[in-house]
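User: Good morning. I'm curious how WTA would be positioned relative to this chain. Could you predict the structure with it bound?
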Amino acid sequence: MSYPYQIKNAEQYQAAYKKSVEDPEGFWSEVASHFYWRKHWDKVLDWNFTDPRVEWFKGAKLNITENCIDRHLEKLGDKPAIIWEPNNPEERTRVVTYNRLHKRVCQFAQVLKNNGVKKGDRVCIYMGMVPELAYAVLGCARIGAIHSVIFGGFSAQSIADRLYDANAEYIVTCDGAFRGNKDIPLKSVIDDALIGNRTVKKVIVYTRTRTPVSMIKGRDVWWEDEMEHAEHQVEQEGKVSFPAEEMDAEDPLFILYTSGSTGKPKGVVHSCAGYMVYTAYSFVNVFQYEPGDIHFCTADIGWITGHSYILYGPLSAGATTMMFEGIPTWPDAGRFWDIIDKYKVNILYTAPTAIRSLMGFGLGHVHGHKLDSLKVLGTVGEPINQEAWHWYDDNIGKNKCPIVDTWWQTETGGILISNMAGVTPARPTFATLPLPGVEPVLVDENGKEIEGNNVSGNLCIRHPWPSTIRTTYGDHERCRLNYFSTYPGYYFTGDGAYRDENGNYRITGRVDDVLNVSGHRLGTAEVENAINMHAGVVESAVVGYPHEIKGQGVYAFIIYEHVHGDENLTRQDILQTVTRVIGPIAKPDKIQFVPGLPKTRSGKIMRRILRKIAEGDLENLGDTSTLLDPSVVEEIKRGKL
Ligand code: WTA
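Assistant: Good morning! Here's the predicted structure, ligand included:
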């Protein structure tokens, strides 16, 4: 048995696409009819991109956890919902059935309630990749609290900023997290983030690494104690229940912070109903999931890919989803392939940066693995280069598995442009065709649509899809300015794209000041702000450059007061500051000390020139006649790293 909304061949795709564009409301209400609603919607869609205002399934009532868990219990209760692979391959695996997931989520929802969390409250989650992270996320959704998951690579300062922005009163964390041969002291980072904080009322701490942690009386509580207490409350005579909060279709489900072209990350908000329908729909169709398949998405739940394609999409489709605590290169670079053979994984969804990094370790780590359970491969997060695509196809998929190159963003909630495995054709390095309901357009600088094929432009979307970003938390105007004002009437993605003769899209990269480092977004302004906080830094400019493994590397040009002694030590100092302010993920790969930055007479930094230098293209710097002091460029060229 497959899914009623599953597209099975190219003709069905064409038909679905046509219907979705001609009658979006009819199309999506049909898809939505296969979910569980407490109350049916009054209106399928209400929208304008001017405010912007996007409302799907208006008036409907639901709880996403009833769709992700409860409605599957009768048929799938004993089937695995989550299979967890620990960091250390010697440690015991955990298989969480739908029944068990139901129990744990009910229990944790009760824990939240016992600790005073109510519908609409913001709960910040800072945990490693353990099943308890899934219970925490879904427990929030069960009681209607808004979760804001923060990736473990962000610093105390970043957490403090996000807590403040979301006005969060509750935190769920771990004592520590295992990643490869490292123990990351998560609770201690939280403690630093909470110095001076007066709003956080409770911190719930799950024990994973049993590293010593400080526990503040009245504020910090142990997960295990709370869960044990709650167990008696939710379980009576062997029957588990915790009534799910009735949510409005448009109530916010979560906040996820992401970098943009300004210095401050934005809290992207997704709402309950549209996000649920779209993630399930795209999950089933892009990966061609069949009941019983094992889906392995290697992302961290701290990013949107983990939210949509480890948790909500697969679970609302009643799928079996893997959660992996560790990293692809530990204990060695064969770890993904070990996991695939161990569990007979059918779908592998990973990032080009991981593929390139594993490629670098050689085929020795792939040999000796069968990999014959694989049916579908996927990539996400950044453009994939030809070489990595073919390596993946030849050595992992053995030329038998379709590769889906899925383009989307935190703001889009789910995959918007991708081939569908075995249904529509792949073309290496192309995300290919839009999913039903998605209308991509290319526009020029003036916002004029570029028609026809074999053309490039700025990628926009014309009509809302169900998981469109709803707002940026606490600042709706920012949402309008960032996404809906550059090209009025469209959602602007910030990406550039090319459209080939068959209407396939190829994403060419960001056209704004956002870098994509190992598939993670970083704003150049955000990194510059962090560098500029370092004593001695006068000014800085950050640009991206092609990096063999990370896709893009971070190149910082820095004017420094005076470097005492060893330049490398000063570089290390600056890296420490960036690690403190943002986190290790934002550390520049190269730091060049410069006497000045190329500026126009009006004082604007000419990044185009710096980008060329960072790329090593020293001869074609273009027009430098508007520069205030062209000799600076010569000096920077001489010092290029
Ligand atoms: C880039 C990740 C090329 C793009 C889901 C986008 C891609 C940004 C692809 C969003 C792809 C994502 N091909 N580029 N298949 N997928 N991108 O918000 O620049 O972390 O704007 O969401 O990643 O990154 P985010």
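Residues 268 and 472 are 5 Å apart (CA to CA). The first strand starts at residue 43 and ends at 48.
Let me know if you'd like a different ligand tried.
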